[in-house]
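Students often ask why we bother encoding 3D structure as a string. The short answer is that it lets us treat folding as translation between two languages. Here is a chain of 244 residues written in the first language.
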Amino acid sequence: MGLGDYLVFYLDRREPLGSRFVSSFGLRGFGGVFNIRFKTSSRFLSLSSFSLGVFVMPSIMSAFDDFPEEGATIGRLLAGYGELELHLCNCVGEIKNDITMVFKVMFRPRGETQRIDVADAIGRQPFQTIKRDTEFAMAIGAMRYCLKIRNQFAHCHWVDNHGRCLGFVELEEKAKNNDPSILIWQTPSHDLDVQTLANHETYFCYTRDLLIFLTHEARVQAGSVPKNPHTKPKQVKQPPLYKP
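And here it is in the second language, the structure alphabet:
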């Protein structure tokens, strides 16, 4: 469905006022209803009145309503993890000089952990050959921790703690324990704040930069570029998964 299906223009009325006419039309679209009134004549067009009525679009994530900054960062982390997977694929594809093979082997099966395992198995020995196996092992470890961050947000129940702070309950962990009760809404949440999530995003960016560095190291080894334009990023400590 295109934008034109959502935006509807309509002419309300055209009233004679002496030698002038008054026309008004409305615009309905995302976020509001606009009513605009014009005075028209053969010589000029002027705005007579303007009114805006706002309506609230339904949200599937009501817990984020009071915490928009935290919600935006969580969205970037969830969406950005797929970009890290592609960087990992490019990294291993370059060192193997066969990006098509690596891409198909990594992405045909489903499962994020399996993709990391496949990339590790394919890339470890070639990076050892160019004496970058330590950095590659660091990148694999960083990917696994990013996946841990991603998974806790992808498989959880979100709560707003009555406006105090944003929190989440890990559904998979709840299902694994021996608690006879499964009342999710009575389970204490892990709390988050802006700084904790900012640390998560910083770690994601570090992981990306390390993979980009290794990708270009492989290109230097293959002779496709004379020098690596990227410096090795400073190691970033794994941040807490949530507030202590």
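Translate back mentally: The beta strands are 8-17, 20-29, 32-40, 45-53, 156-159, 166-170, 190-192. Keep this in mind for the problem set.
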